Amino acid sequence: MGFDSESLGLSDSALGLLRDLVHERTGLAYDDGRREMFADRLAGLLTEGGYQSFLDYYYFLKYDAAAADEWGRVMDALSVPETYFWREIDQLRAVATIVVPELARRGTRPIRIWSVPCASGEEPLTLAMLLDADSWFGRADIELHASDASPAAIARARRRRYRERSFRAMPAEVRERYFTRQGDEWEMDATVYSKVRSWSVVNLGDRREVEARAACDIILCRNVFIYFSAAAVRDVVSLFAARMATPGYLCVGASESLLRVTQSFELEDIGGAFIYVKRHEVQGRPHE
After folding, report:
1. pTM over 0.85
2. Mode of pairing for the β-strands spanning 248-251 and 218-220
3. Hey, what domains does the chain have and what are their CATH numbers?
4. pLDDT of 123-176, one tens digit each?
5. Which of 283, 273, 255 is nearest to 263 (CA)?
6. In this structure, are residues 22 and 30 in contact, taking their beta carbons and an 8 Å threshold?
7. Are 159 and 80 spatial neighbours (Cβ–Cβ below 8 Å)?
8. pLDDT tens digits for range 87-103
9. How far is CA 110 from CA 132, 137, 253, in A?
10. d(CA 241, CA 263)
């Protein structure tokens, strides 16, 4: 159902302020062509919260100390939960069969991997299954973490249960190995599920939250930058470059390019998949 623009006070100026605030806090960018979609997704939150207009909602989000929890609901409303097991599998397979073994040969420290945004968990769990298939969790110290800006998405990931739509690209034999049918859902094997050590709510637009988690060897940040402004992508990638190990491996979606965004990562073909690699230490701190 669409929003009622009159009752919510949908003026260009009010909506523009709200869009700018969302972009500032999250990196998500909505141009004029997506203006009504943006308003429609947030309209329910205004109605539920009893706000009289988008301008009232803007003032609440920007200035009210009680707005911290509301930002989670904003991200729930704006998130795009399009994910499934085995999505863009060539890249994940390259990580599991080439990158992780190479890192394991280099030293004894833990191999840290961060999937962000992880949505309802299909991406990091796909990697967990690939690593488990070759027994890498027993051969190397691997820390696999997952985060998303949507609390609702993380809540779904923590359930450990998935419906048929999540399996549309996964080979049937893999599902039979790692999942058990529970009614109209499939529950993942608890041992392999536990290889994801943490599920957390992280906003890529929050510098402190990103810096606290980006000290990794591998970051999976796929299919989110298509929703960000160029400036927001540059800021996030700069933080990754400053915090990641050397070498550091950054995976983005097949439709995403960082070639005009950063010189800190080199695009490499690894096992038939394209991955951005940090080969040299980054001098100084990213732009404040």
Report:
1. yes
2. parallel
3. 12-78 (1.10.155.10), 89-278 (3.40.50.150)
4. 999 999 999 999 999 999 999 999 999 999 999 999 999 999 999 999 999 999
5. 283
6. yes
7. no
8. 999 999 999 999 999 99
9. 16, 11, 25
10. 10
